[in-house]
């Protein structure tokens, strides 16, 4: 049975920064110079702040970091200082040295949900672009990306770019 233990804040933040699942940096889906400029201009963009409420590690192998270990994070989401939703992410270790994590996250807002994923290599860069891979409700088209930036030990800023 996996052992779930509490992580130090710094390690949780590193895992969270990977996201944004979240999440969880990693494989990013960002508009390139060759992207359709008109579609990019029509993108819906909004800001969210994630404040971590819980985090843990599932250690499935030998003690310490090993393939299959998981970092689990939950955050409350805020817009303009008001709580508007939740974000949960799971990052699974896929390589130990150098460390690589496959991160999957879900954002729940009043308008619907959207999922995001990224392959993160540690140490993570200052910001990470995470691909939006699907959604429901107002986010049913589920395309775009989320830029995530750490803002302290237990807070992250998200800029969501939803493509039409």
Quick structural overview:
This protein is mostly beta strands and 164 residues long.
Explained architecture:
With 164 residues, the protein is mainly β. Helix content is 9%, strand content 52%. The protein contains two helices and nine strands. The radius of gyration is 15 Å and the shape is globular.
Relevant terms:
about 160 residues; mainly beta; eight-stranded antiparallel barrel; 2 helices; 9 strands; about 50% strand; globular; disordered N terminus
Describe the protein's topology.
Elements: E1 3-5, H1 9-18, H2 37-41, E2 44-59, E3 70-79, E4 82-95, E5 100-109, E6 112-121, E7 128-135, E8 144-150, E9 155-162
- Beta-strand residue fraction: over 45%
Which value, in Å, is the CA radius of gyration? 15 Å
> Overall pLDDT, averaged?
81
Q: Percent helix among the residues?
A: under 10%
Low-confidence stretches: 1-36
Please give the alpha-carbon distance between the first and last residues.
44 Å
- The helix/strand series, from N terminus to C terminus, equals EHHEEEEEEEE
Oligomer: single chain
Strands, count:
9
What summary fits the major beta sheet? Answer: 8 strands, antiparallel, barrel
Helices, by number, come to 2
Trace the largest sheet across and list its strands.
Answer: 2-3-4-5-6-7-8-9
Overall geometry comes to globular
């Amino acid at each position: 049975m996996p052992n779930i233990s509490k992580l130090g804040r710094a390690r949780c933040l590193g895992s969270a920064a990977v996201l944004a699942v979240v999440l969880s940096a990693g494989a990013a889906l960002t508009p390139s110079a060759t992207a359709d400029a008109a579609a990019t201009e029509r993108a819906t963009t909004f800001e969210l702040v994630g404040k971590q409420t819980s985090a843990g590690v599932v250690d499935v192998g030998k003690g310490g970091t090993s393939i299959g270990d998981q970092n689990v994070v939950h955050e409350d989401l805020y817009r303009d200082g008001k709580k508007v939703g939740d974000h949960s992410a799971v990052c699974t270790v896929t390589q130990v040295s150098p460390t690589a994590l496959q991160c999957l996250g879900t954002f729940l807002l009043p308008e619907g949900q959207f999922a995001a994923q990224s392959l993160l290599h540690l140490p993570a860069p200052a910001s990470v672009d995470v691909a939006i891979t699907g959604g429901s409700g107002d986010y049913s088209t589920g395309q775009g990306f989320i830029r995530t930036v750490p803002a302290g030990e237990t807070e992250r800023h998200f800029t969501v770019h939803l493509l039409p």
